[in-house]
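Quick one:
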Amino acid sequence: MQKKNRKSNLTTARLSISILAVLVLMFAAIARVAAAPPPAKASTGAAQAAATTSTAAAQQKMAKLPLVFEPNAGQTDKQVQFMARSIGYSVFLTGPDKAVFGFPTNGKAEDVLSFRMVGANGSAKAEALENTGGVSNYYVGKDKSKWVEKVPNYAKIRYDGIYPGVNVVYQGDQRKFRYDFEVQPGGDPNAIRMAYSGYKGISIDANGNLLVGTASGQLTANKPVIFQEYAGMRHPVEGGYRLDGDQVRFQVGSYDKSHVLVIDPGNTFGSYFGPVGGSGNTQINGVAVDATGAVTVAGFTASTGLPGTVGALQGGKDVFIAKFNAGLTAEIYSTDIGGPNDDVANGVSLSGGNAVIVGTTTSGSNYPTMNPIEAPAGANVNQHVILTWVSSTGTMLGSSILYGDGAESGNGLVVDSAGNMDITGSTSSDNFNATTPVLVPHGFQTSNNSTTTSTNAFVIQLNSTGQSVNYGTLYGGCATEVGNAIAVDPLTQSMPWEAETPISRSAQAPRRLPPRVVSP
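Output:
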């Protein structure tokens, strides 16, 4: 019997954990997780080192990750020359003299602050410096011709001649964006004039910091560090900010004009956002660690669109997958995947050097797919399950939407030693079995027993290519059952899994568990 007035989105209570807390839990429990060959677990040394690493120390490491810049290869608006995203802000260099900052708040809105250098040379040529070895990938929408892969990452962007005899170098980290001015012999620091737009007040505090207010926070531009380096030493120079109407300029004390003068202001955005991994810009929902200690994370991130343009954040989220080295000092790759609505990764597992995510989408058939197990054309904009896997460099290898006529949630994932992908979650669809070829006819429970306001849990195993289903089943009665986590016994390949259901269990709930599935 078809259910009426079905909810289009599931409301499952979930615990959002910061990347750092999840890392600690992952390292502690890594020996219990089975993965594809080679086993995706930390070595004994890595696990012991992780156990002795405090959350505070890990937070400090993550906050010090360098900001990486990407040339615009089609992943954002054509006005942008370079872009960079951190855990708390995005910056778009629309020219040598202009930058636009985006500050998402809870993934639902975006504060915008623009910065420009008044009277500067807008034709100054860019030079990308210090290739980090990392790459970025973007799979947005179903049009494959618009996908962008292997965009190189750089630590700095330099523009020479922004003013006569003055160069500027853009760089930063997760909380601070810097623009260092290099005044060459013959250059004049008084030529540098900066103006902001989109602010709600600007002032200089007693410590010499520049305070720029916005609708939801305050940008603090630290008192500039001004110095010269020659004769093997750094020589500090007195100076600071001064306001000239609505423009910001520098006052500089006496210095040796035969040597380069460096003016180093740092814009700190920390007052906008909470702990690492939990900002409005990015949220981590899953973490996996390989045998070398390299860390792969997945969750959601904000749009890469230039604020105020088509494609800018309008309440949508994209899946992101990112991999870092064992010391959490460098990013190996970052990959964004999404459609026009909300797309979120809820879990990640490893298969050799590849990463697999499970999650949810409300983008329907516009979520990017590759070699899907079923055609996505029938997927509506209710919430459905997504299963996507990427290579060791973050390029997409496969992607499917699993859906019915109601709503689904993909919550838990593990890859077993044969590379099979085991997932769990919940569904309110009557025809999840009929529309999605995942619940084989001999599944333990093939009918959804839930009511119009509840769900049944499911367990599905796909083969290592994601092209066929080994087995699957529903599980539940007329109350609410949700599969939240799943694990594979490395010896028996049976699947302990975790589900939640009301204390007053439905009389229609099965009296036994599915074959090869046992409660933890």
